[in-house]
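[recover] target loaded
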């Protein structure tokens, strides 16, 4: 049993349309200390070449809810530009279908929460990893 009074969070992103990590996605972290409390912005990071954020800020003591905000639109726009072709995300209107992804989850003190994001131009999935 952990004696820590705070929870910790990590994440990574896999671009399932390519079967590769999603590099360079900005991730912002926020927390609150109760369902009705105001969100406190804690800062953020960006995914590395392995799709991981290794330097997310620590959660404050008393955090009960956490929100990860992933800015995926710039990532997909860069992928489209790099491909130099009509990428699937460009079929309809030229806009990215999911420009951002916000994941909110509850935490308990002393627990670690790894929250992977499986991402493609038209959908995403998350789960509690290990």
């Amino acid at each position: 049993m952990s004696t820590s009074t705070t929870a910790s969070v990590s994440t990574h992103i896999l671009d399932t349309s390519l079967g590769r990590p999603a590099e360079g996605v900005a991730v912002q972290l926020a927390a609150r200390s109760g369902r009705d409390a105001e969100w406190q912005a804690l800062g953020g990071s960006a995914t590395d070449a392995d799709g991981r954020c290794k330097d997310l800020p620590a959660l404050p003591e008393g955090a009960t809810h956490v929100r990860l905000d992933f800015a995926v639109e710039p990532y997909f726009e860069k992928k489209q530009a790099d491909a130099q072709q009509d990428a699937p995300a460009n079929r309809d209107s030229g806009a990215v279908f999911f420009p951002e992804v916000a994941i909110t989850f509850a935490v308990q003190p002393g627990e670690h929460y790894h929250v992977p994001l499986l991402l493609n131009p038209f959908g995403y999935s998350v789960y509690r990893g290990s």
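[recover] notes: Residues 24 and 77 are 12 Å apart (CA to CA).
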